[in-house]
Amino acid sequence: MTNICIWGDSVLKGVVFDEELNKYVFLENTCIDKTAAAFNINYLNNSRFGMTTPKAYRLMKKALEDMDFKADFALIELGGNDSDFNWKEVAKDPKKNHLPKTPIALYEENINGMIEMLREKNIEPVLTNLHPIDPVRYFNWITKDNLSKDSILEWLKDVFMIYRFQEMYSLTVTKISRQKDVRLIDIRKAFLKAGNLRDFLCEDGIHPNEKGHELMTQCMIEYIEDYRNMTLAK
Question: For tag attachment on the chain, is the N or C end more exposed, with fewer CB atoms within 10 Å?
Answer without folding.
Answer: C
